[in-house]
């Protein structure tokens, strides 16, 4: 669906980098109002990068997900709440097992309202005292988003056992349980 068609349908986009994009699709994909979640690359300076280029750390891109959603069914604030509960927002060097610049966390805003909500949610999380270290997740304007190779799309569905082992072994699931419990 083109972005013009999305606008005509009343759909909006949200873009989040939370480390390995394999682990960021399922948490959003299961919510009513989420139309699609695409794994890809954004934030860098190389057009149409490959996975290998992004992993090299030379493109400036991060692994991210771009969500198309219906704001009449799920709000951007709800998407932000889901995002924060999937990451370690205090880690400047990557996420869990995955290290390096392509695994840093970021919120890429598409509108001024998204920027305002993202900054407010980050400030609220910082003030909550939930984490002992500063929140380092960046809030940046959205730029070009390049979908990742097909084998990276919907990985949790294509390779469910590998996906579950990876989440557990990476430390992501244990971190989420320790900091968010069953909220």
What does this protein structure show overall?
The chain has 183 residues and is α+β, with helices and mostly antiparallel strands. It has a single domain (3-177), classed as Peptide Methionine Sulfoxide Reductase, Chain A, CATH 3.30.1060. It has 8 helices and 8 strands. It has helices at 3-8, 22-29, 51-55, 76-84, 112-128, 155-158, 160-170, 172-180; strands at 12-18, 34-42, 62-69, 94-95, 98-99, 105-109, 138-141, 145-147. The strands form 2 sheets. A 6-stranded mixed β-sheet has the order 7-6-1-3-2-8. Strand 6 (105-109), helix 5 (112-128) and strand 7 (138-141) form a beta-alpha-beta unit. Helix 4 (76-84) crosses helix 5 (112-128). It is globular. 36% of the residues are buried.
